[in-house]
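Hey, I'm writing a tutorial for new members on how sequence and structure tokens pair up, and I'd like a real worked example in the thread rather than a made-up one. If someone can provide the structure for the chain below, I'll link this post from the tutorial.
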Amino acid sequence: MKFFRNYFCLLIMGVILSSCLKKEPTIPPDILSKKSMVEILVDVHIAEASLSTQYLNPDSVAKISVSYYDYIYKIHNTTAKDFKKSYNFYMLYPLTLDKIYEQVLNEISKKQAINN
């Protein structure tokens, strides 16, 4: 009986670990590409940084941020719904999302170096 309990625990731990270490996903056609996600996230983080440096009341920040996000989605030919769906998809693959954010940080660093 103890053997089966230990075996079952090992099996559960294996399933949990394997789900955390998922390989590169196959991107469904309705999900934004990794490249698109990087481009959008760069713009989103720059917009958020810009907003965080302004001394505005929370209502104003909320209104301005909505217009920033709408503009970002428009220039990248996507919608908030598609972006959120894609972001949620990539959250299921932490290693892939980490790679996306590495590229985001690299792109922001490049832009910062150009502006300094």
